[in-house]
Amino acid sequence: MAGQNETLSGVERMPQAETGTRLICRSGSEPVPLADYHLHTIFCDGNDAPEAMVRAALEQGVRVLGFSAHACYPEATDWHLPINRYADYCTEIRRLASVYGDRITVLCGFEVDYIPGVSIPSYSRYAAYRPDYLIGSVHYVSDDNPGNRFTVDGPVEELRDGLARVFRGDARRLVETYFEREREMVALGDFEIIGHPDLIRKRNGVLRFFDERADWYRAELVQTADAIARSGKIVEVNTGGMARRALDDTYPSDTFLALLLQRGVPVMINSDAHSAQTLLYGFDFARTKLERIGREGIAPKAT
Length: 303
Ligand SMILES: [Zn+2]
Ligand SMILES: [Zn+2]
Hints:
Structural class: alpha/beta
Number of domains: 1
Helix content: 25-40%
Number of strands: 11
Strand order of the largest sheet: 3-4-5-6-9-10-11
CATH topology: TIM Barrel
Bound molecules: zinc ion
């Protein structure tokens, strides 16, 4: 496990946090504290109480722990933090920040859905709760009617049905829509971290509904990487799909990560843990990958 003073060569910038402020990024190869900014607890769809996760983090030498309850204001499904619990959630995270503050920096954030016309990751919507940071994530896609939305993060059947019903089997259109939503979110939202930026890959190992080597797919990644670079936002290297055995890789893929790093996009490693047990899951894998791609890029596609 990494120590608190480990540096990451080959990665231009990594974020750090300061207590009670929004995230900042620093340039160069300064020491990077062991940190995880993407965590879910029993306040939304996680399995453990926040305090159990703080204790697990302390045991593993984590210096910054950021909680990011699922939020979709003004709506909530059964996996979101209910709106009438926002205040309780923040109170509990702030309590932990105070109790454990001499040993670890505990931050209170939200992972906010982007759904056009419904939910947007923006501070103005969450100002009453004074979050330390926001993660913006695309979990839902639909056609022009937001009422037809389905998640790309749910069971395989949900994606299979959505592809057939809403996109009439046109997988390319579905995938392009996913990245269109992400670019909209990046342009319109006011938040720091882009969550699992190619989550649409989650079920591709089972459904094989698109070819990640196709030229049109690479074009989507390039366009999205350009939009992200213009925004100045941070991209997370998310290991949650590995912990939940959905795929044996991070979000983003090697190809997408190389495009992001080439453009100087700041990155951070997050676990998206839903239990204390999977805190820091796959961090060594992600760190090795970052170092490799930061150093070498990836080989250009053979023609
Ligand atoms: Zn998510
Ligand atoms: Zn999450």
